[in-house]
Structures are given as C-alpha cells and as structure tokens.
Fold this sequence. Notes:
By secondary structure, the protein is of the alpha+beta class. The protein has three helices and ten strands; from the N terminus they run H-H-H-E-E-E-E-E-E-E-E-E-E.
Amino acid sequence: MNSELNKRNALIVITSAAVIIVVLAFAVFYFVRKANQKEAEVSEVIDQMNFEKEQVQKEYSNLNQEFDGYTSNIKNDSIVKLLENQKTKVQQLLDELRVTKSTNARRIAQLKNELATVRQVMIQYVNQIDSLNSANKVLKTENVEVHRKYQAATETVQQLSKEKETLNQVVTRASILEITNFSMTPLNSKGKKTGWFSQTANLQFNYTIGKNITAQPGEKTIYLRITRPDEEVLTKSPNNVFPFENKNIAYSSSKNIEFTGDAKTDVIFWKVGEILPKGIYRAEFFADGNRIGSFTFKFEK
C-alpha cells in the first residue's frame, strides 16, 4: 500500500513538474516573442529617425544650393550680405545635424523647425529680389525709351541742322549776284569805238547785273580782274587787292554801284597804259566776296 502511495505521489510530482515546464515554456515563448516585436518596433523607429535625419540634411543641402544660385545673380550688395549670413547659418546647422545622432529626435525636430524659419527668411529676401528686379526692369525699359527718344530728338536736330545748312547754302547761292550780257568795246583816245587795238586807249566792259530779290540791297563794290594771255593780271598798283577765298588777290578796276534788287546795266573801264599782246584775255567780275561772272575776249588786230 505504501508502494502505491509512493507511486501516486511520484506521478503527482511528475505531472506538476510537467505542467510547470509547459507553463514556463509558454512564458518564455511569450516574452521572447514580445521582445522580438519590441526590437522590430525599435528598429523601425530608428530607421524612421534615420530617414527623417537624411531628409532634413537633404533639405539643408538644397537650401544651401538655392542660396548659391541667388547670391551669384544679385547685384545688390546689402541683400547679398544678408543672404551670405543666412547661408553661413544654414551651413552651421547642417554641420550640427550631421553629427547629431538619429535617436536624438528632439534636436532633429528643433533643427527642422530652424530650417523652416531660415527658409521663410529666404523667401522674404527672394521677394525683395523679385521686387528689385521688377523695378530694375521698369527702369531699364524707361531708360531704353528715354534713350530712344533722345536718339530720335538728336537725329531730328541733326536732320534739321542739315536742312538748315542746305537751306542756308541755297539762300547763299541764290543771293549771289550774276553778270550777264557781257561784252568788251575798245575805245580810242577820243572815246570812240575802234577796231585797231594799236589805237586802243580804253577798254569798255559792258555788263548787266541780273535781277536778284534775295541779295542784300545797298551799295556794292564791283571788282574787275583782267588776265592777259600769259596769265598776268592787269593792275595799276600792287595795292589794288581785295579779299577772296581767304586771301587777297589783285584787281584791275573797281566801281561802286547802288543795287536795289532789280536788273542793272552798267559799264566799267580799264585805261590802257601798256602794249597789250594779242591773244585771249579773261575778264572776271567779283562782288560781296564772290565771283559773279567770268568771260573771255580777244585782241587780234
């Protein structure tokens, strides 16, 4: 009977031990599974934090590149300096982010907030830049228009000046007197016309000053310049000169007349005091500093 009792006790002990082992096994399995789940969750969180850190780093790097793009195209020194200061701040935050552990979620969140603040500041600067660029475009457009109007005005003035100069030249040419109906009559010592040049005592030059209402009326001096066949100018004195084309040239005879604008027929004389060679002579008339007539005549007999 004791033997059966012992067997029964032993069976109870074994059964209890088995139950305990099974319970422990289930407990171990449960905690191990929980631990694995927790580890997986932690790993997922760490991966997420690493991703978050990489994204923030990427945003900082992109922001730095944006700063580089703006500072290289801006001519305003004040704004460039402000952007450079912000760029330096971004670089410092980026350096800090690189050494910050991914598990330091609080600091990463702070750096992300600071990034948002810097980006907002940059947007304000960009708006200022756009505003300045728009103003510059308006000024450039206005300057181009002003320059165009100035050029047009200058060209108009130049054109008017040319037209005025041309008109002045036309008026000047129109105001020059003109000799017509020229002829030369040889006279003897009695003032009679002669056909023998050896008996010629005077040369009478007949001419008409054409009508000219453009010319200035008033007293005018008519100069006669007689040139022999050998190109020698007939003159009574070396002091008989008048200004023509920026120099003084000799004249043979002169006469003052009153010009009213109407045609005027007149004569001017040259007293022969030397032997005149045969050949072709030239008689030129001058008035108001202009040559107003040029003619030839012959001594043949």
